Amino acid sequence: xxxxxxxxxxxxxxxxPLTEPADGVGDVVDTAAGLAxxxxxxxxxxxxxxxxxxxxxxxxxxQSTFLVQLRRAGAGTAxxxxxxxxxxxxxxxxVDGTEWVLHAASQDLPGLGEHGLRPARVFDTELxxxxxxxxxxxxxxxxxELLGWGLAKEHSAVDWSTRPLPMDWLRYAALDVxxxxxxxxALAARLDEAGKAEWAAQEFEAVRTAAPPAPRPDPWRxxxxxxxxxxxxxxxxxxxxxxxxxxxxxxxxxxxxxxxxDRAIVAAAQAMPRTAGQLVQIGEFAGKGQxxxxxxxxxxxxQAMALAESELPSQRGPSSDGPPQARLWxxxxxxxxxxxxxxxxxxxxxxxxxxxxxxxxxxxDALRRLCWAPxxxxxxxxxxxxxxxxxxxxxxxxxxxxxxxQAFAENG
Length: 412
Hints:
Elements lengths: L15 E2 L14 H13 L1 E10 L9 E9 L2 E5 L8 H6 L4 E4 L2 H10 L6 E4 H7 L7 H9 L1 E2 L16 H12 L1 H15 L2 H12 L23 H21 L3 H4 L2 H10 L4 H4 L8 H5 L1 H12 L23 H4 L1 H21 L3 H4 L2 H9 L7 H10 L4 H17 L2
Parallel strand pairs: 1-7, 2-5, 5-6
Antiparallel strand pairs: 2-3, 3-4
Helix pairs in contact: 4-7, 5-7, 9-11, 9-14, 16-18, 16-20, 19-20
Protein name: Ribonuclease D
GO molecular function: 3'-5' exonuclease activity; nucleic acid binding; nucleotide binding
Pfam families: DNA_pol_A_exo1, DNA_pol_A_exoN, HRDC
């Protein structure tokens, strides 16, 4: 039998570490005079603006931005302190109409917008990588695969509210925007080749114009480990401790998890201590800091213990306008179960065919809602209108509306 020719392994592309910005690391701009110089330079520059922002998640309360990095050809890189310069809108005005390049833009645009930096157009390198079906879409991974450069990421989770910022951190921050425009060009070429450039443009605009997310109902239910509590009184303790922790964290401008870890909240709810003395016998409250605040935490527990039954939180959480959990569908709505199975199979096959992740083809929530209560009759046009009302983009609707309508016709 003839053997197939032996495959020759393609050597891996050598990765060249990026350790120094091409223009060096400039001083952080924190004065009006320095900002004026940046504005003049960026107004005279050319091409897209590369942008990034650093927060102090895990250290400070909220998601405030503590460093803004911008780069443009002919202008170089600017590192700006948004604490000292909270209004940076003059930069956006100086480059009005210019495309901005960001990686995972949905994470940075809200914070940039708080400082007046609202781009007219966006290119999101992470979203582009997703639409191209790349296995790893983190900035360092995409840069390595497409450009052959190695970006160090050891400072990605540091406390960016630190002042002054260490030189190593600033070097890291400058390098993150140094590669973005070249990365954008490489991704844009691949999108064009794959016939996905218009898809990407619609996705980028959706991210740019996205409304802020609505506040979560009962945010205390996100405490890790709450799902193990099967008693409404214990849930009330979680809620009361969460509220006390949040108030303390807000006043002190400290990340809530540093004030009181989730595991401590759940441990207290399980133990239901009656006194501060009993509370500090719990391992998570035995440390010096928690012992010092034991009276505060015990007051929160006492408040929960004193609630009437009618005031206790429900085990099931707040009501939702969406469909129930899919595991309940077979009993409540067998037809919807069949529709969901067929729709998921269709989307999965299309995802594989197009090399686009399932979640980027259509938001899972929109798909569940459509399958639970589809328009009647479920035609290509009516399904398209339904998806459009749930925020689907036209490229997604064009791919899926007729196919989903056909799948529903075949599966009840």
